[in-house]
Amino acid sequence: MSEGERLTELAKRRGFYFPSSSAYGGAAGFWTYGPQGAALKSNIEDAWRDRYVVKEGHQEISAPDVMPEPVFEASGHLDGFDDMIVECGECGATHRADHLVEDNTDIEEAESLPNEEVMDLIAEHGIECPSCHTSLADQPVDNFNLMFETNIGPGSSSPGYLRPETAQGIFVEFPQLSEYARNQLPFGVAQIGKAYRNEISPRKSLVRVREFTQAELEHFIDPEENEPPLAEVEDVVLPLYSVADQQAEDGGQRELTVREAVDDGVVESEWVAYYLGVSKEWYERIGVDMDRFRYRQHLAGERAHYASDCWDAESEVDGDWIEITGFAYRGDYDLSKHADHSGEDYTVFKQYDEPITVERATVDPDMSYLGPEFGGSAGAVADALEALAERNPDAFDDDEVTVEVDGESHTVPVEQTNFSVDEVTENGEHIRPHVIEPSFGVGRIIYTVLAHAYETDEVDGEERTYLDLPPEQAPTTVGVFPLMDKDGMAELATDIAGDLRAAGLSVTYDDSGAIGRRYRRQDEVGTPYCVTVDYESLEDGGEAQRASESASGDEPRAGTVTVRERDTTEQKRLPIDGLAETLEQLSTGDRTFDDL
Ligand code: GAP
């Protein structure tokens, strides 16, 4: 069994995730998170929120999943969010053409190639339909838009789309969000939510799906003035695989600190470098194996339409590198597009420290001249003259000035434009912020964390599978078991489970089957600690404890339980009194099991 298959089997058997709607035959690319998976997902999202919202001081929003068509006309998704599709002439199955080329040749980034070249490569390499093995030579390679379309309200007059990235819900609301940030740059807006892509070939369980959760941060900055707090992460060592290294004969991944990566120009944007550093520490925290992890820079042909530079965090599973997060420098692409398409103001007013006096060139064209001369184009000619005066006042130095309107040149005598240059006082200017975007795919991170946590060893002569998840991420922190369901052990164990839950720990109570089997069940879902109540627990725990409990008005309760650590399977006897606090300290790393 491959690593991925082994994981999918465990995920289904133990309730991490499984294919959705299977009672009705299912639909590829849709997965349900079971109880363990939903808890793991929520722990990872909480850890993300803690690092990228709370610790960074950003704001979080929650925007709708469905957005009207004009949003995606402006964002470029309607025209440009396509994958290459090839349909089998025999069985009608559709496949992602670039992936077929990558799977059957040495070419690594076929999506950057033109459709015709991909079609030629399919013929040249004799690539067959993976479903029925008929040759795909001469089958056309077309573009397929990945957005799910819907209608907003009855009828089809108001088309909408399920958002293909959560980011657009932030960009569209920029004017409002900027006001909440008192128009002070830099500020960041984060969102954790669903994104939808009608992938041509969903594959590898959570890796390529049609509905998934993204955790995205859009950090709006003034590119002229704002700098990231690079010193906070400058010593973090990044495993970097740059474009130059990917293209060099003997190139490979290099280890550079954040500071070195910036100083050597390997990572161009300090902001991108900052988030690479922050994220490296975060991935370690949630259990990604750093020996199976790298940052790879996008080749020019791979970059999304909005990005001027992009690095992916990639994890290795089953010998394949999976993109788990994209770190893109989006510039002012999105805000400019939404400003152009909506006519709204997507700028921030940047106040100067001191007012400044500048020379301002203006025109006040004589419409009684422009009207008869240019007819229906007169207004557009006037606008073009105004724009030209602002952009290039020297163009008005001669007797005549020429402007282009809809591809046609119009020449106007300068005296008819009433051109003048005046001194004006300015308090500030409108600027369009730039955006740095770390965009995390939560499902792929879950897949990575589970794959990297999967361990086997031998315990009592039997093979054991366990997940060495960090306690903070584990779906359950403590398993509580009565050794037997008699003589009051179950009652005491139920009480202890209740107390631990009341203290905020995530607890599973299990009284079925042999104790060894119960340990194995918890090992397989990564529960870091198990507590067993046995006969000794029912005995008096000692005068001191009894006295303190009586003094506090609690029922006196007996002494100790066995606490077992998952990875070492080591067991220790600990007093019930203070158990919640001890387990809390263990799970946050404030104490180690050895210290007990
Ligand atoms: N807003 C930028 C953006 O959406 P992306 O690289 O297309 O960028 C970001 O997606 C992340 O979302 C990826 O790094 C990946 O983890 C996740 N992702 C994208 N498509 C996915 C899919 N079909 N299934 C699962 N996760 C996906």
Descriptive overview:
- It is a single chain.
- The chain is α+β, with helices and mostly antiparallel strands.
- The chain has 4 domains: 226 residues, 2-Layer Sandwich (BirA Bifunctional Protein, domain 2); 64 residues, Herpes Virus-1, CATH 3.30.40; 82 residues, no CATH class; 120 residues, Rossmann fold.
- It is 32% helix and 29% strand.
- It has 20 helices and 28 strands.
- The strands form 8 sheets. It has a 9-stranded mixed sheet with strand order 3-10-11-21-16-15-14-12-13. It has a 5-stranded mixed sheet with strand order 25-24-26-27-28, sandwiched between helices. A 3-stranded antiparallel sheet has the order 4-9-8.
- Strand 8 and strand 9 form a beta hairpin.
- Helix 13 packs across helix 14.
- The chain binds glycyl-adenosine-5'-phosphate (GAP).
- Glycyl-adenosine-5'-phosphate (GAP) binds next to strand 11, strand 16, strand 21 and helix 15.
- Glycyl-adenosine-5'-phosphate binds next to strand 11, strand 16, strand 21 and helix 15.
